[in-house]
Structures are given as structure tokens and as C-alpha cells.
Amino acid sequence: MAGGTLVFRTGRFDAARCLELVERERITAWTLIGSMGPRVLDEAAKGRTDTSSLVNVGFGGAPASPDIQQRVRETFPSARPNVAIGYGSSETVAVVASHGGEDYRARPEATGFVLPTMEVRIRDEEGVEVADGTNGRITVRSAYTMLGYWNDDDATAAAIDDDFWLDTGDVGRLEDGVLTIDSRARDMILHNGENVYPIEVEYRIEDHPDVAEAAVYGIDDEFAGQVVAASVVAVPGAVLDPEVLREWTAVSLASYKVPTLWDLRTETLPRNPAGKVIKDALRGERVHDIDPLSD
What we know:
Layout: H1 15-25, E1 29-33, H2 36-44, E2 56-60, H3 66-75, E3 84-87, E4 97-100, H4 101-106, E5 112-114, E6 119-123, E7 136-141, H5 153-159, E8 166-175, E9 178-184, E10 189-191, E11 194-196, H6 198-206, E12 211-221, E13 225-234, H7 242-250, E14 261-265, H8 279-282, E15 288-289
Parallel strand pairs: 1-2, 2-3, 13-14
Antiparallel strand pairs: 3-4, 4-5, 5-9, 6-7, 7-8, 8-9, 10-11, 12-13, 14-15
Helix pairs in contact: 1-2, 2-3
């Protein structure tokens, strides 16, 4: 960045204080990581701070649902033309794909165009490259990719092959050079022989006006292999009903994708320092068991 100022805030994330910082320092560009998005939007809705200086708002750490994207455009109108997203990881070091503006509007579920400095291939479980538009494991190669994990040759060998292709652990697809993330490989749910990609279900749940954020994951089941579970955070003042959420989700998704276990909460979802939801911490917590819709 040339001619710009980087503003850092110490301590734990606090939506109100971050917005105060935007107002005081007249911040122009801000990247919302993980759960920062819905928390900032809820706080900004109170109208206590002037955020008109923001002309560029991005997402990182995790995909943002179309509903969250639209709320950002409405909450920060001066940044509306420049809402964007980027995809990368600690292992890739640099951004792998990104897009914003009208491209992001046209493809709200995509992560963006693969950057010229990156090579991306989508492979099946045997390591064979798959056809355009087919989901598989995302592998990346570039001059920026990490050399390996510190003092862990086994982990390095599992992640990087002899041709220096890095297995990101994410599932997605390429279509005409545009990358879309469907799920982390270890998060994909296998229910009665059917693959369920959590992000698709999360996007549908988050479209509900009473939902701030959602996480979908699998819970082991003796008969179905895994059942679909959802932890859902209500917007301030809203009361969630699992039956209503089930019906809402079933409108646009196949019955096997609709969660049958619901964890309804008012506190934010647990996340790691990178902003990713810690789904292992959610499994086994309080749930409302609802019979699945009939096929």
C-alpha cells in the first residue's frame, strides 16, 4: 500500500469499538473476518457511528452468504460498488482468488477469479484432475506456497506432493477460471449415501430474517452414517423456532440436506483466531431433535 495508513486495534474483537475507530480514523478499507460481518452489521444498525468514510469492504477467513453481502451494501452505502471477497490460507501465503463489485454481485457464492500468480487444479480423491464445474479437492501451486510445516515432515508430505501442489483441504469447483468453495473436505456430510455440503445449507438458513449466522455440520449416526445438524444464532431480539427454520430450509433444498438437529443460540459461534467456525466445539451441544421431512 502506497500513501495509506494501516490502523491496528489491540485486544479482543469488539464491534462497537471497531466502528468507533472507523469514525475517528476515517478508515476507507476494512476486511471483515469470520463472524465480524454479522456482529458489525448488528452494531452498525444502531446508528451510533459515522462510517461514510468506508469505500471498500471485503470478506476473508470464510465465505459470506448472499444475505450478509447485501446487508453490508445496505449498511455501508459508500462501499457498495467495492464489496469483495478473497480466498487463501496460511499455507498458500498469498491470495489465490478474489473478485468484487459487479462480478461479486453476479456470482455471490463464488470466491472469484484465480489470480495470474496462482495455479489451481480440482482433483478427485485419487488425485485425478476433474472436469470444469465438478466439485473436488482444491489444490494450489505458486511461488508463494509455504515450503512445509515446521519440524513436521509427515504433515508436509500429506499436504504437498512431489510437484509442489498443495492440497488446501477445501472442496470446490472451477468454472471458466472462477473458483467456488463448497466446503472444507473434512466438513462434508455423508447422509444415507448423499453428499451434503454445509455451506449450501448455511446460506439458505442465513437468508432467514431472524438469523444472524449459522454453522452446519454432521453428527455420527448408527443408521444414516451422519445426520445434518445446525447451530443458528438469532439476530438481537428475535426468537428462533426449529420447526420454522426447518420449513424455511426445505423450501429450496432437498429433504436430505435439511437439518434435523438444531442448536439455537443468542451468543456468537465459536471461532479460531483466523475467523473460522470451530465446528468440533458445536457437536454434541444442546439440540432440538426434529423428525426429517419425508422424501
